[in-house]
């Protein structure tokens, strides 16, 4: 068996085309959604991600604004930037690029974001809404990577209803929140969250219909621990230096041998990353539509 590819790049491109139409409908009503970004420091990866977010906004017609602070910015300076974005009427939603530099209290910063402008869906109020509203339509922004993973799977006509899903990794942007989405009644999956304290990872993954690998450990998911026919989503990001080019490149958690046993695999790069970007835009447009009474 050779697995089929869950193409995140192509799926994200379709979503962006749909969003362009929705943004044009908002423009006809005189509404321009605006995404703000707050970037602290000069980490090249984070700079690349933030630049990508502004490029995406320009592509679909969303306005964008940015707050950039140096790596030695204080907690107070970062919190002041959050307050500016909270108060700026041109900014209808914004994100704080993670990770923040060492020594900064990230939770304090994230909790300062106005929940109605939380484009990342990571504010405790919005996560709490997901906990409470299992059966109702979602009327708050959703965490982008988890939302992107579910869209990627469902847009390839793979049903998650009744599926046993094993999540590997308990980080805040993926592992901790994806169960909240997967167990909503409209998705109806059964979820096991594994992490570094899990005694026997293979015992869980070997029984999984779907594996979501977000450990950040290169190649931790090998063919020996994947059930034949499983769907495998590669979210982990590790950077390695390519021996041929000498350049740094991204590698995922899923070993290439998995392609021989799985039914579907998301590539990394080219899978969940582009979907995360598309879902950020979706959150911004959804919020603008809700605010204008269009949704
Ligand atoms: N506030 C947030 N911070 C971070 C998030 C997030 O969702 N919100 N997620 C990641 C970074 N991230 C977006 O911010 C992100 C990561 C990766 C990609 C992406 O498209 N990656 C490419 C590969 C890129 C490469 O080769 O270097 C891919 O997968 O094809 C987009 C966004 C942490 N911080």
Automatic annotation (TrEMBL):
Organism superkingdom: Bacteria
Enzymatic reactions: (6R)-5,10-methylene-5,6,7,8-tetrahydrofolate + NADP(+) = (6R)-5,10-methenyltetrahydrofolate + NADPH; (6R)-5,10-methenyltetrahydrofolate + H2O = (6R)-10-formyltetrahydrofolate + H(+)
Listed GO biological process terms: L-histidine biosynthetic process; methionine biosynthetic process; purine nucleotide biosynthetic process; tetrahydrofolate interconversion
SUPFAM superfamilies: Aminoacid dehydrogenase-like, N-terminal domain, NAD(P)-binding Rossmann-fold domains
Domain Tetrahydrofolate dehydrogenase/cyclohydrolase catalytic: from-to ranges: 6-120
One cellular-component annotation, GO: cytosol
Chain positions recorded as NADP(+) binding sites: 169-171, 237
UniProt key word Endoplasmic reticulum: no
InterPro entries: Aminoacid_DH-like_N_sf, NAD(P)-bd_dom_sf, THF_DH/CycHdrlase, THF_DH/CycHdrlase_cat_dom, THF_DH/CycHdrlase_NAD-bd_dom
The protein's annotated pathway: One-carbon metabolism; tetrahydrofolate interconversion
Enzyme nomenclature, EC number: 1.5.1.5, 3.5.4.9
Signal peptide interval: none
Annotated keywords: Amino-acid biosynthesis, Histidine biosynthesis, Hydrolase, Methionine biosynthesis, Multifunctional enzyme, NADP, One-carbon metabolism, Oxidoreductase, Purine biosynthesis
Residue ranges occupied by any Tetrahydrofolate dehydrogenase/cyclohydrolase NAD(P)-binding domain in the UniProt entry: 143-291
Pfam families the record matches: THF_DHG_CYH, THF_DHG_CYH_C
Gene Ontology MF: a single term: methenyltetrahydrofolate cyclohydrolase activity
Described function: Catalyzes the oxidation of 5,10-methylenetetrahydrofolate to 5,10-methenyltetrahydrofolate and then the hydrolysis of 5,10-methenyltetrahydrofolate to 10-formyltetrahydrofolate.
Description of how the protein assembles with itself and partners: Homodimer.
The family this protein is said to belong to: Belongs to the tetrahydrofolate dehydrogenase/cyclohydrolase family.
Protein known as: Bifunctional protein FolD
Organism: Cellulomonas rhizosphaerae
